[in-house]
Each structure stands twice: as C-alpha cells, then as structure tokens.
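Here comes my example:
=====
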Amino acid sequence: MIKSSAVRMHSEASLPVALLCLFCIFLDTTLVSCKNDIQTINALTGSLDMPNQSGYDVEIIYTDSGRLQGKIIASELNRYDRVDEPYIEFPQGFQVFFYRNNDTVESCITAGYALFRQKDEIWEARNEVRAENYFTGEKLETEQLFWDQKNEMVYSNQFSKITNADGIFYGENGFTANQDLTRWTLNASKGSVNIRDEINEQSQ
C-alpha cells in the first residue's frame, strides 16, 4: 500500500492532457510496489469494493521543459479496477495548483471529494468546489463540477456563482464552459448569461 508519492513528468502536451497523463504514470509506477499488497487483499477478502491501490499524502507534479506547471495534492487516493467501470477516487478531496513562471501559483481548484471515471474520461468534483485565478480575480463556487475531457467541456448542473471584474453572476441551473474556462455560459431558470460575449438572454 502506498504511503506517499511524488511523480514528475516532462511533456510538451497541454496542461489538461498532461493532468490525465499524470495519473497514468502515477498508477503505472506504483503498480509494482503494490502488487504483493493487492494479492494479499484479494486472497483474504476477494471483495470488489476494496481498492486495488491506495495512496496517502499524495503529491503529483507536472513539469514542462523543466518548469513547474501543475501540482495535485490529496490526502488519500484509491484506485478501483475490479468493477465494470474503473475509477479513481479522492474521498477526502484534493487541491490542484496551476503555476506561472515556475514558482508562482496562477490558479487553484479545491474540492471536498473527487472522482475520475477512466473509461469515459470524466472528472467529477463535489462538496464546496472552488476555483480561483489569482491574476484575473475570477472565482467559481459550486457544489458539483464535471470535466469531460473527451468533449473538452466543463459544466455543472448545480447552483453556481462566478465572480469576475464585471460583477457577480449566478447560475441557478449551473453553467457550461470550454475546458480552458475562457468562455462561460450560466444557466438559470429565467435564461442564461454569456459572460465572455456579454450577451444577456432573458426568458420569454
């Protein structure tokens, strides 16, 4: 069983793609060290609800050309492969930091719980999800957030609050955005607000 881990990766891929690769490398590099533990667990319990791997105080680092680009910190990480739809769980949540100029944090995402569905390539963050860009001052607050990597889309069906230079915006039915979070559309019971294009649609 993994007690702690720090993984460094060098790649020219975009950061969203690199974050996915981080977990592939992390899981591959720790598989051998966990093999005996997994075999013991299977022999003793044979339970499908037991994780194949567990990591504690996990830190996953992404670097590009030697420069720090991103970091994921989690108190606990569990990988489940003995199920129809394998997934990776962060039962105590995580923090994701994005860096500018190697050592300056540009933005941060935090959540009390997170899940990555490997087959569908969909991330789900729940429980006090917060995203903040420290340079633009933009903040996102919601209770549930999805990142669909295949379709390059971020969205939520829960009440969402976005704060930026233009003011405070509320989406009663959540929001949709591209995965770079440069275009937002807030969905509300009375219509939607496209913040980036500054188009307000009123209900009829």
